[in-house]
Amino acid sequence: MIIWIQKAISFAAFIMLAALGELLSERSGSLNLGTPGTLCVGASVGFITAFNYCKSVETPNMFELLVLILLSSFAAGAIMGIIFAFFTVSLRINQNVVGLVMTILGTGLAEFLSVYFIESTTGNVRCDPAYYLFTAKIPFLSDKLGIVSDLLFNYGFMFYVTIVLAVVMMLFLNRTRAGLNLRSVGENPGTADAAGISVSKYRYLAAGIGSGISGLAGIYCVLEFKSGAWATSDIITIEAFGWLAVALVIFAMWKPLNLLWGSFVFGICYWAYLYLPNLLGVKMSDDLTRMLPYIITIVVLIVVSLRKKKENLGPEALGLSYFREER
Amino acid sequence: MAEQNTQITAIRIQNVTKSFGTKVVANKDVTMDIYRGEILSLLGENGSGKTTLMNMLAGIYFPDSGEIFVNGKPVSIRSPYDAHALGIGMIHQHFKLVDVFTAAENVVLGLKEEGKFNLAAAGKRIKEICDAYGFDIHPEQKVYDMTVSQKQTLEIVKALYRGAEILILDEPTAVLTPQEADKLFSVLRNMKAAGKTVIIITHKLQEVLAISDRVAILRKGEFVGAVPTSEATELSLTEMMVGKKVELNIERPDPVDPTLRLQVRNLSCHNHEGLPVLQNVNFDIYGGEIFGIAGISGCGQKELLEAIAGLQRVDENSEIIYDAPDGKRESLIGKSPKKIKEMGVSLSFVPEDRLGMGLVGSMGMVGNMLLKDYRRGHTPLTETKPSKELAEEVREELEVVTPSLNTPVRRLSGGNVQKVLVGREIAAAPAVLLTAYAVRGLDINTSYTIYHLLNEQKKKGVAVVYVGEDLDVLLALSDKILVLCGGKVSGLVDARTTTKEEIGYLMTNLPEEVHTDAKPEEAAKEDGQQ
């Protein structure tokens, strides 16, 4: 049971990070379905950077390594987001189409880059220094407090960064002028425009920064969740996690703090296929239990739409390109 | 008292001209003054350029030529931002509010204030403004919980919060109940007392007389004149608004053997907000006649046609009886639009954007013909052949200019789009043809083609209903004219004997003596006697 919860939390953390990026973008009205692809690119670029850095120096400087990994993943993700914004905001192409294209592009690109820069096409490659960096635990807190340690302090630093980021994002969206502007762009771009807010600027920034965060989630997934092992065959799994992140944003009703428990529910459901049958003492198909996160997303959507509370139905202009109407 | 204030000019508009495209001149060489501390009504028919002129003050449009002076200084207003900076705030008909935000959030949206972002402080200032003028909104209230009147109030608060000294309201009472309108007026008087200048755009005469100090009148984009309200009467204003009758050479064959087609009794319906849009409307439509419907926009013409076509839910007790040419007598109420169409009642509605209702922009003529025909095929696949023939026929008869029958209609010019729409409806050989704004935005020649088409139908014994904006055309084309005012019938007149002034007056006034439950014939007689 404890292991289940632990695993669920470590799964939850990087899904939540990816979802935070997607959430930022969606609150500005951009339904970025390129997030799964962005995750793959972030993972691939981040790992390539770490791998080649470690190969090129005798003893890697841990701080340099950390900065390099984070920067490269973020930048790779951000570029994906800016491309998305260019097509959807500047060229006003349908967001769904561009998003799907970005995902296809992202998975392909991730594989190509990995094969091209790592030059080892078979099996797993590892980058242990980076792995240790991401899984280093807080001393004392992580082993002296019994069950509290096991459940709350048994994770690498990214876990805490993610939680802080969720709170920061909540404060940004609800307590700052820029957050208010961003939300208005996602709700009613016509009104925002009339109030003198640049719709394009906010959508570019939200997609860029949001995708950068999703990119970070990609490398986080590889270095902690996947235990630091990288193989091109993992890309398809990472893409699947990306779709979960998109579903999670809906599940959380577009609110950053809901991601905290929402992602945990997803984590529990994700690992249910390993632990639930044993716990219940029944045999059931893996495929069925793996569907759980999607099923509860649908159930939540139904419940939310039945309650008809407008805030919970997502940004009103989500998925819509904005044209300034001319007569 | 007011006279002392009116001496100072707040805004001077000098020789301002604005046109859209090459054909439509919205404002032509307008020169007028707006005085500080007055309530000015800007009066004019639909399409007379009132809103365009005010939009130039609010920074939505920029004049092609001419100058605008604010407090004596020439200014260039290029965006709503510039307008705010000059203390001009405009409340549009369509509110610019974010539904899920609170009142306070909407007010501060987009403001570039110095210092920390502080909604609580903003809320306090909003409360002060509300208390000062008697507004009834709470800063924490969400917009989607507000009534229409509260949303409008919020827009006013928004303008005042930004320091507006001059407030422009575009048809503020169009969406309000009479009680809400009264409340708005008292608020406007409070604002005037506080030294603000208020401009209201309207075409309702009673409002003009009730609230304003001065009336400025626009007609067809030109400034006709301004008079102090105290010297104006409803009649004198109507005359200035509609102008002299223009003689049009539209043929009007005498109706041949009119037979009763449609009987409408006690027709009432409500809109989504639960406000009545039609109340106890009664009239008869005869085959072989053109039945004109006149009224300012929003008076219920649209709902009336939709009710007949089965697109609008009507209240209980409403009756629409249809006498088909084959002698059957049936009620249209509760029937589906498809069924009504099959029975021979056809609606062609040309909306403001032309394509919104009736045609699919990205399909060609053939595809659009097919839209109303696809059920006729005998195989699971659609048969395009009859539609192709029909499209070809419409193209030849109506001289539709298109590169090919399959060119998306969106790419055709407005006139041609309308020909396709009207042509398709006529091709269905209806017994009742409902047309709304059939000539909207068309040039003179194309308009005449459409009038001719309608007359052709009339000669065939079709009952043609024509809803139009241009009174001159209505007078020249129709046999009878039903005038609506605020969802009620204010008169049914004979188009051959009536005058433009009479219709203009009826459009804006509900005569007390015309009881809405009176028989249409009696109503017509009463109007004839006036």
Structural description of this entry:
Chain A is mainly α. Chain A has a single domain (2-315), classed as ABC transporter involved in vitamin B12 uptake, BtuC, CATH 1.10.3470. In chain A, 74% of the residues lie in helices and 1% in strands. Chain A contains 14 helices and two strands, in the order ααααβααααααβαααα. Chain A has helices at residues 2-27, 35-56, 62-90, 95-118, 128-135, 147-152, 157-175, 177-187, 189-194, 199-225, 235-251, 256-280, 286-290, 292-307, and strands at residues 125-126, 229-230. A two-stranded antiparallel ribbon of chain A has the order 1-2. Chain A is globular and about 55 Å long. In chain A, 48% of the residues are buried. The mean pLDDT of chain A is 87. Chain B has 530 residues and is α/β, with parallel strands linked by helices. Chain B folds into three domains: 2-242, Rossmann fold (3-Layer(aba) Sandwich); 249-346 and 431-455 and 462-530, 3-Layer(aba) Sandwich (Rossmann fold), CATH 3.40.50; 356-428, no CATH class. Helix content of chain B is 34%, strand content 25%. In chain B, the strands form four sheets. Chain B has a six-stranded mixed beta sheet with strand order 6-7-8-3-9-10, sandwiched between helices. In chain B, strand 9 (214-219) and strand 10 (222-228) form a beta hairpin. In chain B, helix 12 packs across helix 13. The relative contact order of chain B is 0.10. The interface between A and B is medium-sized, with 20 and 20 residues.
